[in-house]
Design brief:
single chain; 371 residues; 3-stranded mixed β-sheet; mainly alpha; 3 strands
Length: 371
């Protein structure tokens, strides 16, 4: 009887937590001000505290939980079969409770660390008054792309490099990232506060799944691919740190990352910001401008920038292809689909395509806010 009572308490608790998550999602969907209040007054301060705690450990707790989750899924059918065959009711009940709480934990953290934040006021409207809502011309797009490429070219000649010509990033990059974020907080208050030290995650796994960085809502950690090319590390880290401050939309995190990189004194960090922005701008130019203009812009890119602007080194990518259990193409497709689905479930109707909306923020900032 006592065992049944404990199970009942667990079920009731699970139902309560689930109901709270459903209510929070419904409120966020129908009340943007409520979502804004949550981001500023609840999520941001709590995120600072929790990310500092999880940051004590040098390894990624989120990555460990992902591995454990995969192992749990693999073990589940065997545990159920053994429990059923041997009539181990206590085993099945205990496992059911454990599995249930794992699902509840995922639902809870996804709700309050992702889904509610997707419903906040969009960045442009909140901070720039929707200044660029009327749209932008192809001439403005081309101009900004050219300016960005030129800035990247200039910084490519200023960054520190080793004997192989590879970029040497500042050793105190975590301090630089926090300083840059706090400088931006004068304009965007939610960025104020401490930033945890970004964590380097398995290059093999991240590269296989075509990931530069990952924000884990389960543990509030900023992670990046340890095999990532140095020129992409600062902008990637700033992007993931932006998520920890509540800017969960990908285009907004990318834009904040760009601005934060430009606030740094170190040329290596500013260089990373311009490279990231140029990639998004060139992608937009390829879709919107005549081929001749797009080609002209591509020819402006210096050899140094072309060399630096890679995901990982060609040697490392080839190594991953040879050692991969499943093809990198399959892993990349699975990763992209998972990201696209998560964004759409969160209310971002264009899914992964929303990354490209960073270009609108860049154009808005350049032609309506700076001028």
């Amino acid at each position: 009887m006592q065992e049944k009572k404990k199970l009942s308490k667990n079920v009731i608790a699970m139902m309560i937590v689930t109901a709270v998550c459903i209510a929070a999602n419904v409120i966020a969907v129908f009340s943007t001000p409520a979502a804004d209040f949550y981001m500023k007054h609840i999520f941001a301060p709590l995120s600072d505290i929790i990310s500092e705690i999880t940051g004590i450990l040098p390894f990624s707790i989120g990555a460990v939980l992902i591995v454990m989750g995969i192992l749990l899924l693999i073990a589940t059918p065997f545990i159920v079969i053994i429990g059923a065959v041997k009539k181990k009711k206590r085993l099945l009940k205990g496992f059911g409770i454990f599995f249930g709480w794992v699902l509840i934990y995922i639902i809870f953290t996804e709700t309050f660390n992702c889904f509610v934040l997707y419903r906040t006021t969009e960045f442009s409207q909140k901070y720039h008054g929707g200044a660029g809502s009327s749209g932008f011309t192809n001439e403005q797009l081309s101009q900004l792309c050219e300016e960005t490429i030129i800035n990247a070219n200039e910084l490519a000649l200023q960054v520190s490099r080793d004997e192989n010509g590879d970029i040497i990033l500042p050793k105190n990059f975590d301090e630089i990232a926090e300083r840059s974020m706090n400088i931006l907080s004068d304009r965007y208050p939610e960025l104020k506060g401490s930033c945890p030290k970004p964590k380097r995650v398995s290059g093999a796994v991240m590269t296989s799944f075509d990931l530069q960085g990952v924000y884990f809502p389960f543990t509030l950690e900023a992670n990046y691919n340890k095999a990532l090319s140095p020129a992409r590390v600062p902008s990637t880290v700033m992007h993931e740190l932006s998520h920890l401050k509540g800017f969960i939309r990908e285009d907004e995190a990318g834009f904040i990352s760009y601005l934060a990189c430009l606030e740094a004194e170190e040329p290596e960090v500013r260089y990373s910001g311009y490279i990231s922005a140029s990639n998004y701008l060139l992608s937009a130019c390829r879709k919107s401008l005549p081929y001749e203009e797009y080609y002209r812009l591509c020819t402006l890119i210096s050899p140094e920038v072309r060399k630096d602007n890679t995901f990982v080194s060609e040697e490392y990518m080839e190594y991953i292809r040879q050692k991969a259990v499943i093809s990198t193409e399959t892993a990349k497709a699975v990763s992209n689909k998972a990201i696209d689905t998560t964004l759409k479930v969160g209310g971002i109707t264009d899914g992964s395509k929303s990354y490209g909306r960073m270009v609108d923020l860049l154009l808005e900032y350049r032609f309506y806010i700076q001028e």
